[in-house]
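Thread: T-protein, structure

OP (GT): Posting the sequence first so everyone is looking at the same thing. Length is 170 residues per the record. Can we get the structure tokens written out before standup tomorrow? I want them in the notebook alongside the other entries.
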Amino acid sequence: MFSPKLSVQGRTVAICLEESDSPSTFIEQHLMEAGMKVKRMTPVAHDELMALCQALPHAAILGFGLALARSSLDLESALEVMPPPMRTMMALLSRVLVNPPEVYWDIQLENDQANHQRSALAEGMERLMKNVRDQDYDEFRNDLQGISNTLGTRLSSGAVDCQHVFSLLN
């Protein structure tokens, strides 16, 4: 799901069915008539995918917010020099905070696969901390290359997407 503050036009919604070759349902027809795209998947596939697409980024955003709240620096003075990545993270955090906390709590609590993604996020942070602590630039560079390889063809389009977002913040 996605925030009701966003347009549904062109958005994809998951329909959970045990068998993907089932006949089209009334709800699928209704969603498509409303301008949405429908993606069929099993409940298990849905939970795995939503843990990756919802629980992981929300956990990263919430972790950023918790770190920000613990900072002794004055946020107002940071606003004057805030680069686009920080402004983007602040925007994402603000979006989470203006919505009901129950939404994000349910995403973290109710999906059995979410814990796996939170653990992977924590392990990634531990890896970064170790690389910096050990002053291991080669391992840091190798990790970035591994991430680039994982993104594959999505890397270029993601960089373009980011450029568009950053240009909106100027």
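GT: Both are above now. Quick notes for whoever picks this up: DSSP finds eight helices and two strands in the chain. The chain has a mean pLDDT of 94.
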